[in-house]
Write a structure and sequence with these properties.
Layout (H helix, E strand, L loop, with lengths): L22 E12 L5 E7 L5 E7 L5 E3 L12 E8 L5 E7 L7 E10 L5 E4 L3 E4 L2 E3 L2 E4 L5 E3 L5 E3 L25 E6 L2 E2 L6 E8 L2 E13 L2 E8 L4 H5 L12 E6 L4 E2 L10 E11 L2 E11 L13 E11 L2 E10 L1
Parallel strand pairs: 3-6, 4-6, 10-15, 12-16, 13-16, 19-22, 20-22
Antiparallel strand pairs: 1-2, 1-5, 2-3, 5-6, 7-8, 7-9, 7-14, 8-12, 10-11, 14-16, 17-18, 17-21, 18-19, 21-22, 23-24
Length: 336
């Protein structure tokens, strides 16, 4: 692949409204240090294969704090979920700072890959992982992208990033009985290990926004929203992972996307039947139907299968420790 990058200057408004003009949404970060005044922070953010990097940030009187009383309650090591405005000097002015678990040692964020139907456990693909991570043979800080979590004692939360949940024409819920493979979540935990197939106990599990790509096949008004029925591209995680548990979703290849006046529409292509678009928001499993509260719309990408590409489904047997009574064997389907 030989990509071409075209760079153009970006004019940053004082109050950006979307990702196209400087707004940052749902940034997962760790407090690296607190300045002489609590409103000044240095954050550590994941840098993929490059490890981590730091980002200067600040808050002001307009910053919304969730899970903590304010800037003075933040301390080094805390995991944050941050919305903010990119400043001309490259720093971030936070508009929202959320703390799901002030005592967590690790934070993993990404899509759920599998939900066990025997024990309260799930597998996560950690696109973003921060903290001490796994400890193997006494060595800590080891990255592992598909950890297993025991959620028997974990509260299930919904991100406070979207503020219109109460207006939706359905009751949005996220709990142990309706979590489904393909949803994006943020999980906090204590230090964990891979020894003996033990699932790491999750401290908190929070549903976070994600992006889907698909074609609009129908639309209709629904209260103060317009409900767009979107047919997902074949490689999307919902239809790909649904082969593991075929009874959880009525139609894993379809999502009902709810758009209202607060939705940022950055799509030059019309938001209409036949258009292929990307939708960013919270995806709920509503009694077997996938429904999204949409925060932003962008032009989509038409799926063009490569001549030499293939998707293989492989079954992997994992050992999961239920309790002191013994081991429970579960069959997990993964893709590669």
């Amino acid at each position: 692949m030989t990509p071409t990058f075209n760079l153009t200057p970006l004019t940053l408004p004082t109050s950006p409204t979307n990702s196209g003009n400087g707004k940052i949404a749902g940034l997962v970060a760790t407090v690296a240090s607190v300045g002489t005044t609590p409103s000044n922070l240095t954050l550590t953010i994941a840098g993929g294969t490059l490890g981590t990097r730091t980002l200067p940030a600040s808050s002001n009187s307009a910053t919304v704090f969730q899970g903590v009383s304010g800037a003075s309650a933040l301390s080094p090591g805390m995991f944050l979920n941050v919305d903010g405005a990119t400043q001309s000097d490259g720093s971030l002015l936070a508009t929202r700072i959320a703390v799901e678990d002030s005592s967590a040692i690790n934070d993993s964020c990404g899509p759920v890959m599998f939900v066990d139907n025997v024990v309260p456990a799930l597998m996560l693909y950690g696109r973003t992982e921060l903290g001490s991570l796994q400890t193997i043979n006494g060595q800590s800080g080891i990255y592992f992208d598909t950890p297993n979590f025991d959620f028997s004692n974990a509260p299930f939360n919904i991100s406070g990033q979207l503020t219109n949940l109460q207006n939706l024409p359905f009751v949005p819920s996220f709990n142990p009985s309706n979590v489904v493979a393909g949803q994006s979540v943020d999980i906090t935990s204590a230090n964990f290990s891979l020894v003996g197939g033990i699932c790491t106990p999750a401290n908190t599990i929070t549903l976070v926004p994600q992006t889907i790509n698909g074609t609009v096949v129908a639309s209709q008004p629904s209260g103060s929203f317009v409900d767009y029925t979107v047919s997902l591209v074949s490689y999307d995680l919902f239809p790909t992972l649904a082969v593991q548990q075929t009874t959880l979703l009525n139609n894993p290849s379809q999502v009902e996307v709810y758009v209202d006046r607060s939705t940022q529409t950055l799509n030059p292509q019309a938001l209409a039947v036949g258009s292929t678009l990307r939708f960013y928001g919270l995806v709920f499993n509503d009694n077997g139907t996938l429904r999204m509260d949409c925060a932003q719309v962008n032009d989509g990408v038409t799926a063009t299968p490569q001549a030499n590409s293939a998707v293989a489904v492989q079954r992997v047997t994992q050992t999961v420790r239920r309790d002191s009574s013994g081991l429970v064997l579960t069959t997990v389907t993964t893709t590669k």
